[in-house]
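Weekly structure sync, notes
Attendees: PL (lead), two postdocs, one rotation student
Agenda item 3: pending single-chain targets
PL asked that the sequence for the first pending target be pasted directly into the notes so everyone works from the same version. It is reproduced below exactly as submitted, 79 residues in total.
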Amino acid sequence: MIQKFRQKGYEIVEHNQKADIYVVNTCTVTNVADRKSRQMLRRVKELNSKAVVVACGCYVQVAKEEAQKIEEIDLLIRK
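Predicted structure, written out during the meeting:
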């Protein structure tokens, strides 16, 4: 994903920096991983309330309905 963004001219920043788009690759191996994924999705929106937050990864695949309830997510990517 990083390569695709760079090819389109986007600058890649660390997850704790302000950005226009946040892509969060979620995990669901354990309940703790689920919680950390949800926390990260909410936290990045706090960095920039106008940013687009994209959620992808296994948490989104497994817990689609729960993920859809997270208001901070603008786009869910599932297979």
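Discussion points:
- Residues 31-47 form the longest helix (17 residues).
- Residues 2-76 form one domain.
Action: rotation student to compare against the earlier draft before next sync.
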